Amino acid sequence: MKVWIFMGSKSDSEVMSPAEEILKENAVPYEKFILSAHREPDKIRGLIAKAKEDGVVAIIAGAGLAAHLPGFIASITDIPVLGVPIPASTLGGLDSLLSIAQMPSGVPVATFGIGRSGAKNAAIFASRLYSQSKKKT
């Protein structure tokens, strides 16, 4: 079992780094991917198709600007997706927050706060999902 972390670009790494720190502290295995939902949708689809087989219990997805990544992932899996708005625009991430929080019915994304604190809380939440999943096996 493990958690996956997705982000749309390398520049998101600084904001998402607390998620990795929390997962490490909690001994939660994870993998990190830097893929754009706009430019690499087929690569993402391929990974998500193998996620359950790979034991993924949660997916943390950080996204800024159009914030398409968490919703795109949630539209192709029933694994819990935890969205982290990245403050990448002049709006300080409010645009990303609203984009991630306002998913259409049937495409749920648990949405966390903007920036590093949101990444940290998403990882704490994912750690709890991981822990609960371990108890069931």
Provide structural commentary.
The chain is an alpha/beta fold and 137 residues long. The chain has a single domain, classed as Rossmann fold, CATH 3.40.50.1970. α1 runs parallel beside α5. The longest helix has 21 residues.
**Averaging pLDDT over every residue, what do you get?**
94
CATH architecture: 3-Layer(aba) Sandwich
Q: Which consecutive residue ranges, at least 5 long each, have pLDDT under 50?
A: none
How many strand elements? Answer: 5
> The CATH topology is what?
Rossmann fold
Largest beta sheet: strand ordering: 2-1-3-4-5
Q: How many helix segments?
A: 5
Order of helices and strands: EHEHEHEHEH
For the termini, the CA-CA separation is 10 Å
Taking the sheet with the most strands, its summary is: 5 strands, parallel
Coarse structural class: alpha/beta
The tally of structural domains comes to 1
CATH class: Alpha Beta
Helix content: 40-55%
* Cα-based radius of gyration, to the nearest Å: 13 Å
Shape: globular
Strand content: 15-25%
Oligomeric nature of the chains: single chain
Key terms for this structure?
42% helix; five-stranded parallel beta sheet; 20% strand; 5 helices; alpha/beta
Brief overview:
With about 140 residues, the protein is an alpha/beta fold. Helix content is about 40%, strand content about 20%.
Give the topology, please.
Layout: E1 2-7, H1 13-25, E2 30-34, H2 41-49, E3 56-64, H3 69-74, E4 81-86, H4 94-101, E5 110-111, H5 116-136
Parallel strand pairs: 1-2, 1-3, 3-4, 4-5
